[in-house]
């Protein structure tokens, strides 16, 4: 009960604010902003402070990128940004992989897990969200509160019983323990996000379709899914990145190196060669991060494009 | 905004739900044969919910119950669980210094790291809110670490950043501070972990920024005319109007911080060292359950974690009435 009454206004308000102020930082349509004259020196100070802060925040990432070009012997001697003798040898070494498994295989495993997670998450979360947002069924209130409750549940409470379950089913060292939960909408965050989004969609089209005799499945598929595409893309992006970065899941369930995704392969580098081949470790780290960084750049563009669709909402 | 009011009604108390059913029941349900139609609606609802329901029962509720049972047993996955009553819990608090230390450093990490992250996020959000033009680039740059900060790659980088003669060590020695490497130093490794969580302030900042944009400028102007200085305006306008967002960020921040795992694992090579100072509760739970095969004991640790998180959430909800302000119609 507490769960239901508290989080709703808070979450709804946050959600609302995220919608209201469009993602580019322009003021919300309902909130006219007076143009405030700022002094030039204020703007200069503003830029200087933020550029300095950006430099600090992004330093580790720039360091990571530039360090991939350092020959292995340079670490420990030169921990600065720029390599003294730039080389590509780390990349050659990393592409060979580790523990007898080529890097491409780790990549493929990560990719299968991440793409599978995206498909499962988007499908199952959208189905559940449609039910919560558009169908008046018995028990809706209680189930919705339960779903919100799982938002706050620490995942670690479940790892032991889930492990025992998958172990008894003989599924350890397969991708199934990692993917099955995604197909069952266990990530409540996505369900909640989609529920909020569907609720903002006008019901007129549903009603019209209903009068024409369409059932829920048809309304879901032909009306709601196309309408909530921006939210689905957001879910897909996050599901991909979270699955790509996930460490604990693969650590628990995948035991043979040829099944390892990148984070676990990185652990091999980290364990085996922390001092002896730091060049390879750093380069493998960078390579593992690269898809996420690329996703992030694309995600930014999507947000900018999304402003147009934001205007349609509400 | 009409959407807000509907949303609040839909998700509010039982009575308002009934009101909604009366008021907004779709046209087709008011025709004769309503009852049968309602039953059909319920069927459709559960049909759509099948995947979620299977996951909710099979992967959340039943495992939770089983884990509670296991916490009263001694279990190593090879032999059947043996009931030992409260022994696991008693052992935890009376005969396991490693658990006590793990609980302490986790609480320090959560209760120090989260507020610092929130304050940093709010300060930067206010800075970005000062001007719209050019803010987008900075917003994206600051957001990037939140996406990747929990990854193994970043943990490896972080360790290098704070190594002896690494960038942080060298940078500080410019100011005459010679701390050496942070990673191997039991006094510095926890601050280093906290700095990693502070580095990921971006997501929180984006939410704060969206909240700040919603505060009507007129309120600030009115406060200014009444002679309120910048600090007073912050206290009297920004904080109250932002309080729902602060509450949201605080709640999710605290719960998220309890679950730090990958970075501690990588930075300590799975050991939780040096001197147990990165042995966060999740890492300790993992080691007990999966390295030592003490699944009963690890389940008990998991339940203590769950109860602590629940208590913190409960306290937050309890106190929200005194400091969180929900405006009636959201303006």
Task: Kindly describe this structure.
The complex is a heterodimer of chains A (314) and B (331). By secondary structure, chain A is mostly helical. Chain A has a domain at 103-312: Orthogonal Bundle (MetI-like fold), CATH 1.10.3720. Chain A is 70% helix and 0% strand. In chain A, α11 (229-245) runs antiparallel to α14. The longest helix of chain A is centred in the C-terminal third of the chain and has 35 residues, at 278-312. Residues 1-32 and 304-314 of chain A have low confidence and may be disordered. Chain B has 331 residues and is mainly α. Chain B has 2 domains: 1-27, no CATH class; 89-323, MetI-like (MetI-like fold, Orthogonal Bundle). Helices cover 72% and strands 1% of the residues of chain B. Chain B is built from 15 helices and 2 strands. A two-stranded antiparallel ribbon of chain B has the order 1-2. In chain B, β1 (73-74) and β2 (82-83) form a beta hairpin. In chain B, α10 (202-213) packs across α12. The termini of chain B are close together. The interface between A and B is large, with 122 and 121 residues.
**Low-pLDDT stretches of chain B:** 1-24
The quaternary structure here is heterodimer
Largest Cβ-defined interface: A-B, 122 and 121 residues
> What would the average pLDDT of chain A be, to the nearest integer?
83
Strand order, largest beta sheet of chain B: 1-2
Percent helix of chain A:
over 70%
Globular, elongated, flat, extended or rod-shaped: what is the shape of chain A? globular
How does CATH name the architecture of the largest domain in chain B?
Answer: Orthogonal Bundle
Termini separation of chain A (Å)? 28 Å
The biggest sheet of chain A amounts to:
none
Please state the average pLDDT score of chain B: 86
């Amino acid at each position: 009960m507490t769960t239901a009454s508290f989080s709703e206004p808070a979450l709804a308000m946050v959600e609302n604010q995220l919608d209201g102020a469009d993602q580019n930082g322009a003021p919300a349509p309902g909130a006219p902003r007076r143009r405030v004259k700022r002094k030039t020196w204020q703007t200069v100070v503003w830029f200087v402070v933020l550029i300095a802060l950006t430099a600090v925040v992004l330093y580790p990432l720039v360091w990571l990128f530039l360090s991939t070009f350092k020959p292995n012997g340079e670490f420990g001697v030169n921990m600065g940004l720029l390599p003294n003798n730039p080389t590509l040898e780390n990349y050659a070494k990393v592409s060979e992989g580790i523990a007898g498994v080529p890097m491409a295989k780790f990549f493929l495993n990560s990719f299968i897990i991440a793409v599978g997670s995206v498909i499962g998450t988007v499908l199952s979360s959208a189905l559940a969200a449609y039910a919560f947002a558009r169908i008046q069924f018995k028990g809706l209130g209680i189930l919705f509160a339960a779903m919100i409750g799982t938002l706050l549940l620490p995942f670690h409470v479940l790892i032991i019983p889930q492990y025992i379950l998958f172990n008894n089913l003989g599924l350890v060292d397969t991708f199934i323990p990692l993917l099955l939960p995604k197909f069952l909408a266990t990530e409540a965050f996505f369900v909640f996000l989609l529920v909020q989004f569907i609720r903002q969609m006008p019901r007129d089209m549903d009603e019209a379709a209903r009068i024409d005799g369409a059932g829920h499945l048809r309304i879901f598929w032909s009306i709601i899914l196309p309408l909530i595409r921006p939210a689905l893309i957001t879910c897909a992006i996050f599901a991909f990145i979270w699955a790509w970065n996930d460490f604990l899941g693969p650590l628990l369930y995948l035991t043979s190196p040829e099944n390892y995704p990148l984070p676990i392969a990185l652990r091999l580098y980290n364990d085996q060669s922390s001092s002896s081949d730091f060049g390879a470790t750093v380069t493998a780290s960078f390579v593992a991060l690269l898809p996420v960084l690329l996703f992030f750049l694309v995600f930014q563009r999507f947000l900018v494009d999304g402003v147009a669709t934001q205007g349609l909402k509400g | 905004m009409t959407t807000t009011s509907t949303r609040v009604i839909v998700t509010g108390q039982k009575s308002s739900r009934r009101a909604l059913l009366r008021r907004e029941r779709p046209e087709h349900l008011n025709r004769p044969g309503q009852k049968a139609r309602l039953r059909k609606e319920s069927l459709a609802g559960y049909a759509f919910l099948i995947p979620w329901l299977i996951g909710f029962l099979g992967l959340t509720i039943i495992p939770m119950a089983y884990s509670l049972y296991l916490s009263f047993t001694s279990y190593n996955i090879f032999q059947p669980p043996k009931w030992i009553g409260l022994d696991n819990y008693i052992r935890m608090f009376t005969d396991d210094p490693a658990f006590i230390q793990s609980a302490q450093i986790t609480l320090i990490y959560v209760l120090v790291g989260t507020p610092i992250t929130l304050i940093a996020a709010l300060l930067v959000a206010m800075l970005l809110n000062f001007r719209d033009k050019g803010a987008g680039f900075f917003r994206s740059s600051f957001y990037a670490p939140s996406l990747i900060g929990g990854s193994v790659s970043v943990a490896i980088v972080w360790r290098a950043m704070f190594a002896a003669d690494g960038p942080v060590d060298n940078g500080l020695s410019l100011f005459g501070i010679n701390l050496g490497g942070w990673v191997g130093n039991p006094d510095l490794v926890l601050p280093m972990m906290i700095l990693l969580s502070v580095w990921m302030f971006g997501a929180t900042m984006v939410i704060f920024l969206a909240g700040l944009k919603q505060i009507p400028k007129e309120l600030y102007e009115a406060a200014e005319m009444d002679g309120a200085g910048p600090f007073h305006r912050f206290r009297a306008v920004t904080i109250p109007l932002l309080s729902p967002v602060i509450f949201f960020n605080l709640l999710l921040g605290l719960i998220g911080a309890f679950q730090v795992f990958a970075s501690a694992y990588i930075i300590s090579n799975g050991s939780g060292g040096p001197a147990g100072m990165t042995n966060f509760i999740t890492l300790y739970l993992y080691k007990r359950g999966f390295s030592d095969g003490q699944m009963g004991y690890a389940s008990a640790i998991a339940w203590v974690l769950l109860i602590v998180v629940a208590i913190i959430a409960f306290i937050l909800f309890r106190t929200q009435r005194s400091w969180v302000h929900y405006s009636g119609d959201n303006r």
